[in-house]
Structures are given as C-alpha cells and as structure tokens.
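Re: [ENG-882] Designed sequences occasionally contain unexpected residues at chain ends

Forwarding the minimal case from QA. Structure tokens:
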C-alpha cells in the first residue's frame, strides 16, 4: 500500500467526536481497586458485528480469564471496565483522551480514529477484524414500508438520514454517485444517530435511512421498513475492527495479547454455536435473536475472522478519499495505522476459511439448530411443509449479491419453475427485465406454489 502523510482533520470531525465522561481509567496506572491495573474497553453492544470484541466476548468472560492468566505471568492483577456506546465516535474521543485502551468500530470510524489519534498525539493502531462482508452487505438503505420509492434515483430531492463519517454514509455517497446523483446537491442528508434516524423514518420526517448493522435488518424484521438498496451492490468490502492506543499496546503488550486471544476464543464460539451465540447477544442487547442471526449466523451477512485480510486493508485505502471529500480528514496513513504484529504474536492458530456462497436457511421454533438448503425453492418447500406458526425465521440469499435477507421480507421472482429472491424490488425488477417469462410473486403465494 502506498504510504500517505497524516494531516490535521478539518473542523467537522470535532463535531462528530464529542467527549463523553469516562467511567473507568486507562491501563498503566494502578488506579483500580486494591492496586489492580484497569483495562478499559469501549464497544458497541448493538453494532453486532463487533460482538467478538464486545457483547459476546463480555458475556463469555474470556477476556477476564485470559487477563488473569496473563497477570500471573506479569505479576500484575488486572481489572476490566467495559463501556458501551451507540457509535464509534465517542469511543475515539475517549481513546484520544487516554481513557479507553481498546475499542471496536466500523471501517470508516476506524479511519477517523487513526486521524484523530495522530492529531491529538494519542496514536492508535488497528490490530484485528471482527466481522466483515467482502461485497459491502453490512450497510443498507431502507425506506418506510409501502413507500413508493423504488430506486436510488428516486431519492432526488428527498431527505435521507444517515450517520456522517460512518460506513453507512460511505455506502450512501458511493451508491448515489453510481445512480447519477450528487450526494451534496441532489439529496438532503441529515446527520443523525441510528436510533434517531429510525424514529425519523417511522415518523415520516425523512424519506430513507442509510445505516449499518443491525438497524436495516431490525426495521425490516419489525415490519417498519423495506430495503431500497443493498450495499453489496457496490462490491466493496466493509468490516469492523479492533483499535488500540499505541501507548497501551507498547506498555501493556501482554494485556493486548490476552484480549486478542480472548477475541479468537469468542470467534470460535460464535462459529461453532451460532444459534446459541445469537440468543446470547439478543439477551444482552434487547435485539431480536432472529435479527442477530441474520447478520451473525452460520450463513449470515457477516463473516467473523480476526485476520487483517489484504482485501479489507485495500478497501480501507479506498475509504480515505470518501472521508476526505466530506471534509472529515485530509489524509490517513493506513500503513502506519495497521499493525498485524500483535495478532500474529498472540494467536498462533490457523486462520478461518474464506466466506463461502450463502445458502438458504430455516430456523424452526423450539429448535437450537437451523437447516440449510441449496436453493430458494427448497427453502420455500420446507416453509410450506413446516406449516403456519412453526417458522421462527427463514433466510434466503439475494440471487445477485448473495446478501442473506429475511425470506418473508425479500422480493420473490418465479420463472420457468425456478425461484429467486432479492433484497430489493429494484434488483428483482432488473432480473425480470433480463429474463423473459419471469414474474414477481408475493412471498405467501411463492410458499403455496412451491408447496403444492
């Protein structure tokens, strides 16, 4: 990767990174009870593609276990403080104030983390990945249920809620440009927290919402929104990762190693027991388990692997110009920010296989496992056979992008006895236009037809 020179971010970044009062001190000073060294971790409980470094990891207690073992080697007693935030911005603010040692966030916030850390002389380093999607399917643009908007081009002159500086905003900007719209002139973009944007969409004060996991899936599951644009259509990787204060990584390398070992264990747990992990995260966050599983399941939108894959780092380089054009940074030295050494030092196990093509999946009520199907038609037949009320959730991959979606929220197409599902109506209509004799069919009708 080409080396870049770091420069001071422009003023708008400061607006995105409000300082929040800390509830725990950084490691390095024996400020914990009884002289324990405090390690403060910032995470986003409802940004569920960070769970192996946050919600799931915390519930499993793996970090505390690894730290206790590391402490016996170091002759130190460690104490963990977990701080939960809605977005990555306040985590960065606390890290650059020296009050959070380890944080997890999405790819665009990670770049802001790098830029802000250098500016304030509290540099940070990217040391691992949590969840990723190689095509960008973690971000989605949704509209209110029943909206007449069908394509991104229909957003011209409309109000769109997003979180400026987030990966979801990056998806929106890129997608609008591909649709021939100027993101700065053709839409009215509102910078809002995800929960605020969701309320605005429900209340009709915005026409669309562009957000990251798990908000689009949650709103679709609740019957409050429908997908307008699948981020995987960009075919650009998006991911979440773990960042650490450089000073902490240097002075408490053993503690960082313990965190990365614990993250690997949490990743193993999620991959070996995906349903149980989804139920655990749901209990901790209040999110429906069906939504958690959409993203974090065995064939979910996200693939979990701590490895700093080359394609993810290359995508990070491509994100820098988007933030620069938004006036949020002047430049970011990605090479200087990424540090693969701690993960290689702490985790010696072999990496996970790359993500495979998605399959349809059925989760029946009262079951602790799911069933996978090779085709959408097989899933429809299984749903029909299960009968009314027996299906807890059914998931089907988009026929074009592979993004899994709720089967009863997808747009179904039949042609020549073959069934295909799509996240958006626009994608389904493109398929119909390109395949003579195919037609869009309501989900209930598709189930009946497949089961007859």
């Amino acid at each position: 990767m080409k080396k870049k020179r770091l420069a001071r971010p422009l003023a708008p970044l400061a607006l995105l990174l409000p300082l929040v009062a800390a509830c725990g001190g950084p490691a390095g000073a024996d400020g914990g009870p009884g002289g324990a060294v405090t390690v403060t971790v910032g995470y986003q409980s409802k940004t569920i593609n960070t769970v192996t470094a946050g919600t799931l990891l915390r519930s499993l207690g793996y970090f505390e276990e690894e730290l206790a073992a590391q402490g016996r080697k170091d002759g130190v007693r460690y104490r963990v403080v977990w701080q939960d935030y809605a977005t990555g911005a306040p985590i960065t603010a606390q890290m650059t104030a020296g009050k959070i040692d380890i944080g997890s966030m999405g790819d665009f916030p990670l770049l802001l983390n790098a830029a802000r850390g250098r500016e304030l002389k509290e540099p940070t380093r990217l040391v691992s990945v949590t969840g990723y999607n190689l095509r960008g399917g973690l971000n989605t643009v949704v509209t209110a249920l029943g909206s007449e908007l069908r394509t991104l081009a229909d957003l011209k002159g409309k109000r769109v809620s997003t979180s400026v500086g987030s990966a979801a905003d990056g998806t929106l900007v890129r997608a609008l440009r591909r649709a021939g719209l100027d993101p700065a002139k053709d839409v009215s973009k509102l910078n809002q927290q995800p929960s605020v944007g969701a309320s605005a969409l429900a209340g009709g004060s915005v026409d669309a919402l562009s957000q990251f996991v798990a908000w689009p899936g949650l709103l679709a599951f609740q019957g409050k929104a429908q997908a307008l644009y699948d981020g995987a259509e960009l075919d650009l990787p998006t991911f979440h990762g773990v960042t650490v204060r450089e000073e902490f990584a240097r002075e408490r390398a053993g503690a960082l190693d313990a965190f990365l070992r614990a993250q690997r264990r949490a990743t193993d747990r999620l991959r070996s027991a995906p349903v149980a992990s989804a139920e655990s995260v749901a209990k901790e966050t209040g999110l429906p388990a069906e939504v958690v599983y959409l993203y974090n399941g065995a064939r979910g939108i996200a693939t979990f692997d701590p490895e700093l894959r080359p394609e993810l780092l290359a995508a990070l380089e491509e994100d820098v110009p988007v933030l620069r054009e938004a006036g949020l940074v002047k430049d970011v030295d990605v090479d200087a920010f990424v540090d693969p050494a701690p993960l290689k030092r702490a985790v010696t196990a072999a990496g996970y296989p790359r993500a495979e093509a998605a399959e349809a999946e059925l989760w029946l009520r009262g079951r602790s496992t799911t069933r996978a199907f090779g085709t959408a038609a097989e899933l429809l037949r299984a749903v029909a056979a299960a009968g009314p009320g027996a299906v807890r959730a059914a998931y089907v991959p988009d026929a074009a992008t592979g993004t899994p979606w709720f089967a009863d929220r997808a747009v179904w197409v039949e042609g020549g006895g073959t069934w295909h599902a799509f996240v958006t109506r626009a994608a389904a209509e493109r398929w119909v236009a390109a395949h003579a004799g195919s037609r869009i069919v309501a989900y209930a009708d598709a189930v009946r037809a497949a089961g007859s």
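QA comment: On inspection the terminal residues look reasonable. The CA atoms of residues 366 and 394 lie 14 Å apart. Proposing we downgrade this to a documentation issue.
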